Amino acid sequence: xxxxxxxxxxxxxxxxxxxxxxxxxxxxxxxxxxxxxxxxxxxxxxxxxxxxxxxxxxxxxxxxxxxxxxxxxxxxxxxxxxxxxxxxxxxxxxxxxxxxxxxxxxxxxxxxxxxxxxxxxxxxxxxxxxxxxxxxxxxxxxxxxxxxxxxxxxxxxxxxxxxxxxxxxxxxxxxxxxxxxxxxxxxxxxxxxxxxxxxxxxxxxxxxxxxxxxxxxxxxxxxxxxxxxxxxxxxxxxxxxxxxxxxxxxxxxxxxxxxxxxxxxxxxxxxxxxxxxxxxxxxxxxxxxxxxxxxxxxxxxxxxxxxxxxxxxxxxxxxxxxxxxxxxxxxxxxxxxxxxxxxxxxxxxxxxxxxxxxxxxxxxxxxxxxxxxxxxxxxxxxxxxxxxxxxxxxxxxxxxxxxxxxxxxxxxxxxxxxxxxxxxxxxxxxxxxxxxxxxx
Length: 440
Ligand SMILES: [Zn+2]
Prior knowledge:
binds zinc ion, 11 helices, about 25% strand, seven-stranded parallel β-sheet
């Protein structure tokens, strides 16, 4: 009697499994985001579209996709759907235990800060040089769910503080370029930063390394010096494609007496030099940004300069930086362009930052809140605004990695009394059910 029940149960299980796999076989997509307003600047889409995803990739973006073709359908009507945000200026080389160092305590772990603000790719801005890049790689890059890329510092020791960053003897182009060539997929540029002397050596050696490795240079121009003016940097020293970050800091004559943008920046832009926000704790002022934006000098890319100081001061996170540009009158489409496709091109990772068929399904679902908000600069001055972005849902390689209000989740009282994990590993990286025997 007992054994026949067992056989019956076994047959039922077999039937259920085979039915399950039949249903699965009919489903072309693992996940369908239905009814959102897609903004995909690379593909010039800004309209209500469905986004279908399978095997971690975007399959198609179309006006109407049949929900029966998807394993999981998420209603995202009323929200915006954009490529995962790309933040090309962060500091994430933490965990070494070094105090007062961006190769240590001043940096943050990327996964704690990225997905909750819609960011799926970051570029560390020079925390490590060629001497410690491999330590950074094994400590952070290899262990993060966030896609972490890096500008290698021209200083061999990286951003370990003054005595290292002012050492002209440790700014060799060749070993920096060699390391960049060894890790071509990860090292996307060369960084020079924080230099206080009158010499051009850090910039020149960074450009030399960038030329050897065929990658751009990002410049934090350090302390202003009459011997090396900003005008010469952007009109002569940098190559087209090199990046000037901290655009609206006002620390290096980005603005002239009259309140206009330094004409040298316009000239640099004409030459192809890129201008990036790099907000940080001390690099963004309303009195620079507002007149510059009015004059039409918009940044090519928005970025945070995320570190332990900036995140709790005016900067906060990538979405807050984007909010600031909405508050200055840019459209959401203009802001998304500067947080997705533009930065992808700047770091020459053109496989990222868009929702073309075949692209990695790094996707964010954004909500625009309307209300009364305030946005603060580096000296604590506020600009009021009426819109605020929130990340509802973040996907990395087609899997949910962040879901603010549980829009992908069933209501608890619709589930069996003894419910367990509700997700499926084909679309969920948070609470997927344990893999079935023999199945994915
Ligand atoms: Zn920085």
